[in-house]
Amino acid sequence: MPEQCDPRPYDALLLLSFGGPEGPDDVVPFLENVTRGRGIPRERLKEVGQHYFLFGGVSPINAQNRELLDALRKDFAEHGLDLPVYWGNRNWAPYLTDTLRTMVHDGHRRIAVLATSAYASYSGCRQYRENLADALAVLRAEGLPVPQVDKLRHYFNHPGFIRPMIDGVLASLAALPQEARDGAHLAFTTHSIPTAAADTSGTPADHTRGGEGGAYVAQHLDVARVIVDAVRAETGVDHSWRLVYQSRSGAPHIPWLEPDICDHLEERHAAGVPAVVMAPIGFVSDHMEVKYDLDTEATAKAAELGLPVARSATVGADPRFAAAVRDLLLERAAAERGRTPERCALGSLTASHDLCPVGCCPARAPRPAAAGADWRGPAAEARA
């Protein structure tokens, strides 16, 4: 097998995502899965679920994952990469545990995992690893073989992730009224998280104090700078820009990353900018937090202000992203075989680590997390 398309030691790829409801009856049970252990009353979950009910109780995320799954399989086949691709979710069907059980029954023992979260944070990385550990514990309790699972590195700065977003921003600028185009402001959006979680995101060397945001903020800022530089090179215009946040869901007394996109639109309008492009760089696809928080809520705020806005596309199932996943997989496979692969990365930050070190994106309370330096591995799990 040619070195450039050799997936060994991996015998399967798992696409691991968040999941979402696919009908009105799914909404509250889905939210119960997401918030399990937090003691949130069912009536409150019904209120939160109104965002989903506006869209018929259907989150776009599952359909988008099916599209990505198809794109990955197509890309693998076109490049001679004979590796099956499976899909599992944390919070809705197909559930992660069920998918891993199927993979084990199909004979897979060394599984690479792509999480649909590009950046370092507890909720975007370690929580996925905790869910993997929980699922593997179930398999072990059922007497099944426990496979080795390796999470592919963060891909926030991989060219196949960034370049589709550059094109999306350029297309959004072109869609603005011509008289507003050159003065348009770029608002790069991502999910707000508690400042305490942001400050402890990434490796221990990345952690900060005083709300600087650790690896989570640094990685987003680096991606935003790459996009701004590319837009300048393409258009000759140096647009003003800022990293802003959306989708806050925590208690009001707990500090979260700010400014919120709607507050930022008000501030930019007051400052006299003629238009804003909202670029959701923190999200892989146009799921509910993009469709509601940006396309519905933020767009309504802009209309109220009389401020022209355009929302750029997320990466989704872009063929360049599918090719990036193949690249990430083969890169990690080569490293596991003792090779030194070339690691693609744009911006000032280097390619992310393969194996999360101890203390990376720590949880509030210690829990087992697979696919990291603090995981004991299948052999030790089997003896436990």
TrEMBL record:
InterPro entries: Ferrochelatase, Ferrochelatase_C, Ferrochelatase_N
Alphabetical list of SUPFAM superfamilies matching this protein: Chelatase
Superkingdom field: Bacteria
Residues binding Fe(2+): H191, E289
Chief location category: cytoplasm
Subcellular location: Cytoplasm
This protein's name: Coproporphyrin III ferrochelatase
Record bears the keyword Protein transport: no
Binding site for Fe-coproporphyrin III: S59, Y128
Keywords, ordered alphabetically: Cytoplasm, Heme biosynthesis, Iron, Lyase, Metal-binding, Porphyrin biosynthesis
Function text: Involved in coproporphyrin-dependent heme b biosynthesis. Catalyzes the insertion of ferrous iron into coproporphyrin III to form Fe-coproporphyrin III.
Catalytic reactions on record: Fe-coproporphyrin III + 2 H(+) = coproporphyrin III + Fe(2+)
Enzyme Commission number(s): 4.99.1.9
UniProt family annotation: Belongs to the ferrochelatase family.
Biochemical pathway: Porphyrin-containing compound metabolism; protoheme biosynthesis
